Fold this sequence. Notes:
Pfam family, one: Na_H_Exchanger
Helix content: over 70%
Number of helices: 18
Structural class: mainly alpha
Shape: globular
CATH class of the largest domain: Mainly Alpha
Domain Cation/H+ exchanger transmembrane: 24-409
Protein name: Cation/H+ exchanger transmembrane domain-containing protein
Number of strands: 0
Region (Disordered): 416-457
Radius of gyration: 22 Å
CATH architecture of the largest domain: Up-down Bundle
CATH topology of the largest domain: Na+/H+ antiporter like fold
Transmembrane segments: 13-31, 38-56, 76-93, 105-132, 144-164, 176-201, 207-225, 245-278, 323-346
Amino acid sequence: MSGSALEETIRDVLVGLAVVVPAAVVCGRIAQRLRQPAVLGEIAAGLMLGPSLLGLLPGNPTAVLFPDQARPFLQLLAQLGLVLFMFGVGYHLDVAQLRGRGRQVVSVSLSSVVLPFALGTGLAVAFASWGLTGQGRMGLLGPALFLGAAMSITAFPVLARILTDHGLARERIGTMALACAALQDLLAWGILAVVVVVVNADGSWPLARMALLSTLFAIGMLYVVKPALHRLLAPERSWNRDGTLVQGVVFSGLLLSAWATDAMGLHTVFGAFLFGAVVPRRLLEAHTPEVPARIEQSSLLLLPVFFTVTGLSVDFRGLGGQGLAMLLAVLVAACAGKFIGAAAAARLTGATPRQAVTLGVLMNARGLTELVLLNVGLGLGVIDGRVFTVMVAMAVVTTMMTGPLLQRLLPAPPSRTAYRGGEHGGAGGAAEAEAGPRPLPRDAAGSGQPDTALREP
């Protein structure tokens, strides 16, 4: 790229950011007034700025505001915001709350993957004559595996934002939901890796290599990186008096971890989340509490860019009557598969009825993590544009359902609003996470006792 072309691209990126960030903030505020999490407004902002709405106007303002040469740079900023946010999610994860619940987490995760996966593969067979495409000798295998994986996704980052907005991020039910979502998404990304291998690879070695590297990476993070960070950040070390130096170490480790999981074929969010989880939280909070706070605050400006920029590739035009029928079938299968799979497994492993229902509702949130997976499938040719659009609509609707359903399960006292933590878009949730969990809601009978069915000590 020549110097003049680079300068022009930089100007395009600046203009794009000047449009994206205010649009995300405004739509996030509107979503909160509609008793929805801010993240849903940011999703809507991206969809409206894309070809489905703004692109319909004369002159195609979408192409003018976001030219092709600028989009990779906007995507880079968006991914950086997502990685920084996921560090904060891992950093605040309290695994002690899951003690004694490993069987329940595994059961809920597997059940809420197997059932929607089966329904997704069935839909792939049913939709085969409606535009699903195979890859040569694969036939229907690729579309079936892919649609099953897409139905099995729970949007980990979006779920984390919703939990934070509701004050559940540090509660046991929230921690369990995040653990289940993380395990589910790992399974779904693994299935996606199988699809990629089937389409692009000549043998099974690439998949086996990714699984081996991922396992070694997780073991290394837990048994090498975590002890090393404890020694490096010990209070007796003289360099720990300089918060800037500590911040550099943590920030570099975060980015390298995200790079490592991406290089293995997984998503960057898993590396960022795992690094946040192994960072010695007590040491940082005792000596340099400003370090994680700065990293999390850095994501507040960039995270809305992730949700908005991703929506630029979505096009709802030309869905038609057949597409609407596909959407209805996908919505029914998606909601039934996730809710029944998660709630039934939770109930069978000892959860109260209300806990089981809450997990079923939370596991049904898919968000724009689904779009990451769907774009891969579209690029591979295992789904066409209509199926892509239908699945995007399903992701938006299932995410939109989560907030109101949680609101009914978690009745708020008159002294607080439902989405107070999301008042400033991404900032609200992080700020509230720093301040600690909200007061427990009172039960429906008005007895004044904490609702321990959902919020356990």
